[in-house]
Amino acid sequence: MREDRGAVDAPARYETKFDFIELAISRTDRAILISDAAGRPCYVNPAFVSLFGYDLPDFASEQPWSLLAGPLTDERLHARARQSTVAGRGFYDDLLLRTKCGDPVWVSAKIDPIFAADGSFSHLVAMLSDITSSKRLQVFQRDVLDALARDIPLPELMHFICLQVEALAPDTCCTVLRVDEDHRLRPLAAPSLPDHVSASVDGVEAGPRAGSCGTAVWRGEPVLVEDIATDPLWSDFKHLILPLGFTACWSHPMVLKDGRVVGTFAFYYTDGHGPSAWHQQLVDACLHLCTMAIERFEARAKIRRLAYYDALTGLPNRTLMRQRLEQTLRADPGQKRKIAFLCLDIDRFKDVNDAFGQPMGDLILEGVGQRLLEHASTADMVCRLNGDRFVIILDECDADRAAVAAQELVTRMQDPFELSGASIPLGASIGIALYPGDATNVDALFDHGEAALMDAKSSWRGGYHFFSPAINALNKDRLLLGAALREAIAAETLNLVFQPQIEWETGGLYGVEALARWSHPEYGPIAPDRFIPVAEQIGAIEALGAWALRTASAQLAQWRRDGHVIPAMSVNISAQHFRDAGFAQLVADVLAENALKPADLTIEITESLMLEETATVVGNIEALAEMGVTLSMDDFGTGYSSLSLIARLPVKELKVDRAFIDRLESDASAQAVATAVICIGQSLNMSVVAEGVETLGQRRFLEALGCHAQQGYFYSRPMAAADFEDWILNYSGGALRRRA
After folding, report:
1. Which residues form the EAL domain (predicted)?
2. pLDDT at residue number 2
3. What is the 3-state secondary structure (H, E, C) of 657-712?
């Protein structure tokens, strides 16, 4: 072969096939080395000289491998190549060699043995392709994946990617931007740009004239601007970039599988030449890696949010709050800090869900969370435990500040929520535990805060209570009592007693009130004012009320069958029953089961229930009234009912609370209240029943006012059913007769 490596002067010089082969070998970009059987090079093409810097004379006294092998070259590959060629087989693999200047170079090597006509080995042809760039790209990708696997923070990873890319393409400046949920740009990495550039871009909304990156996000496709100074896309931002010497920008959007643009990857150039093929390879690799990283970041953020944040309100959940509180307490070994743990519960939230539906209830919970956040300082923490229960942790807060904060929260929660045209009033109760006074660990703070909350809710709703050891003992007692009460209701081991109501004009029986009693084999007799609040707290009050309603109705029906004249049976029903849309139907079913008329039943309700003008409560009240059931307002005068409310609701009876009757003979205020209640009832054509009458003086005072009926120990204590039958037979106060 001829040594001519010059340009083609005239096609006439290449007339034979070998001429054209020589032309191809001299023009290819693959390095070619041909050596004889002894391994001495006899030909190298221009591409070989260009790649390695060695020409034929350089191999006069050296074997090719001794010159081309570097300190990082794998000698095992050399041995395998030699074995393959000696055996008459070709060799193909990637080799790390070095140039004459000592620079490493990766090549894809194809080495084939050549045999003479007689079958003897005569030459070796090595064709070497420069794959250094692709190898460096592979190493880069491997390093990024390794960093990704180590879960380094996203900004740190993007910074690493930019630095590596700038090393692979020194003629570029690399940046990575993220796109937030509001379609605004958020810088992640720009190691070669001044900080003020990133700060100026932060928060810029993507749009049709938002530079290369913002426009690429808006279009969802790459944007190349070759002259930043004149391109209208850069009119609002060129003052940031031009002083730095950059004249062109090429930006690619990062697009997820669902089509969402989550970021951009961009190159800045100083000479305006734009991207090369090598740049395109880098961009393709980086887009894949960056998109993978952001997807992983979002997935992990979503997992973290699900694990540590409430999905509805976005507030920290119990797990995160516990972790942060534990960290705070560990950092205070001397217990010098003062922390208030406020446990807040929305009063009667279930009624809101029942009346307006869960979607409206969810909106209210979100609103409650927002109100709590507005009240909290940056050092405080608000979390949602579950349902309608929240916790507020106030840092550097003593008892006085905790009381002020609790009262402010209670007051704020009383402001109605305006949603979908409806004004929904609410309230909240709060229990407070203090660190380190009440507890020095997280579990105790939780327990004591919830104990104080239970005490607040049992005493009065819409207030706050501090924890005390007495509260803790009381709540333990409630827990034990609650478990026993559930068993008693299920086993129907409670019983009813009956107290007569006497009509003052005739002395005859006006009615009978059924009262629940409970005697436990271990705890003994348990008063109603003790176990009924427990039933409300543990959610057993509806089961207790349904049992009382069925048992009292069945007893009335039995007395009627036995010939006793019992005008009506009164049963106390919890407000919770009226919040159940099926309560009126339950009453109708019980009456039908016992062949009773609606007028045979009087249901006693509280003043506070009348203030709950929700659709479910009002619907039950109206349904019972239309049915013919008598509704009696119990303990009238102790609440906040207005005359207009009483006048428009279908209440037929008022009961004067025993608190006023007890002081009737000695307290002018009690006399005034009793007189007013009786007069109100008479003016509204309602019956009035005074309960707790124990003396002759009380009886005469009430009779003088024209009170319709009286009830109390003056006439009889509450009695078991059998004792009540005897009382009826022996009572001589009026025209009570046993039917024939």
Report:
1. 478-732
2. 41
3. CHHHHHCCCCCHHHHHHHHHHHHHHHHCCCEEEEECCCCHHHHHHHHHHCCCEEEC
Tokens of residue 138, six digits: 């592979």
Arithmetic mean of pLDDT, 649-668: 87
Q: What are the residue boundaries of the structural domains of the chain, listed by start?
A: 11-130, 135-307, 318-467, 482-725
Instruction: Give the strand order in the sheet containing 339-346.
Output: 381-386, 389-395, 339-346, 428-435, 464-466
- For 135-307, CATH gives 3.30.450.40
Fold of the CATH domain 11-130: Beta-Lactamase (3.30.450)
pLDDT of residue 137: 86
Residue 558, amino acid: Q
Q: Minimal CA–CA distance to 665: which of 638, 691, 626, 699?
A: 699
Average pLDDT for residues 544-573, to the nearest whole number? 94
Q: Is the pLDDT of residue 668 over 80?
A: yes
**CATH fold for the domain made of 318-467:** Alpha-Beta Plaits (3.30.70)
CATH architecture of the domain formed by 482-725: Alpha-Beta Barrel (3.20)
Alpha-carbon distance 474 to 478, whole Å? Answer: 6
Give the mean model confidence (pLDDT) for residues 364-388.
Answer: 90
Query: Residue 6: its pLDDT value, please?
Result: 42
Residue ranges of alpha helices (H) inside 538-582 are 541-561, 575-578
pTM above 0.85, yes or no: no
Q: Residue 685 pLDDT > 60, yes or no?
A: yes
- Please, what is the Cα angle at 477 between 472 and 481, to 5 degrees? 150
